[in-house]
Amino acid sequence: MESSLAAIEAAVDTLVPTGEGGGGGAAELGVQRHVVDSIELALPGFVDMFAMLLDAYAADVRPGSTFVDLDPEERGTVIRAMAREEGQDMREMVGALFLFTYGGMYSEWTGYDRATGRLKPPEVWAELGFRGPVRGNPVYRDDLE
Q1: 76: Cα separation from own chain's centroid
Q2: Where are the alpha helices (DSSP H) in 1-145?
Q3: Which of 29, 41, 58, 124 is most open to solvent, judged by the fewest CB atoms within 10 Å of its CB?
């Protein structure tokens, strides 16, 4: 599972790398843990298979290499190749990678401190100018009159 986590970490880093302004990328914020946990919750053992597929496609891009060995551009080539497969299962796997990566990156997940149970607004929200969830527009709510 450790090598699988490294492959998922490389994949999330490919999708959301560290920003030019120094903003934390997905891997830097630990989003790979969210991706692995989410996939394992739905399909136990599937992360290992996904990592094996990433490595298999990596060998097509650079023979003898694993996905982790590839540079970011080559990793992108692997992900695009997997997304273009005819089989629906492969496309859904890539879709899950995107969904859980961006979900972990832009939801409250990165603001939750698992050790203390405290939740603070994630730093990425401030970078995007998002002030967090609100109870809704008072014009549309009867209970706020």
Answers
A1: 14
A2: 2-15, 31-42, 46-61, 72-83, 88-106, 123-128
A3: 41
